[in-house]
Write the structure tokens for this entry.
Amino acid sequence: MSDLMRYAAELEGLEPGTSPPVEQWKPERVGEIDLVIRRDGTWMHEGAPIRRAKLVRLFSTVLRRDGDAYFLVTPAEKFEIAVEDAPFVAVLMSRDGEGPRQRLTFTTNLGDKVVVGPEHPIEFRGAPETGAGAPYIDVRRGLEARVARALFYDLVGLCETREIEGEEQFGVWSGGAFFSFGRADEVFS
């Protein structure tokens, strides 16, 4: 983990909203560390929460998803970590416009800002631990944010029904695209 800590210190000057090209790195050393991102967005190391928000933010910039596994990656090392649900939680939402011209911008618990649209879709599905339906937003390179429950209710207030292929779908517009949460008669049944 020493290479990871050294590399995290080097990343301190990164501009907000940017991250290194972790998908291009092919480190030779692979291992595991006792790090878990809990469903509520808390990063835990060896059973204790990491209290330094700056360190968590730095680690999040070198987070990568390969298939169903998550890794902290540097050019020299790759450490598998556990993620209970999604690595980020969307905690703020702003809206610009209405209907098909509406743009929804979400901010994650770690400060990432994402405008939902074709490049950053929102998908409604069951959460792994609870099975309850929740919206997930593609933040970057397959890393997602689950929309926090309180924010979910605000999002539902912006939803509408729309006929798609002969079925009434319940969903939301953003970035010129309609994102269906499912058939209108099944979404909340």
In short: Helices lie at 2-10, 53-61, 149-156. The first helix runs from residue 2 to 10. The mean pLDDT is 86.
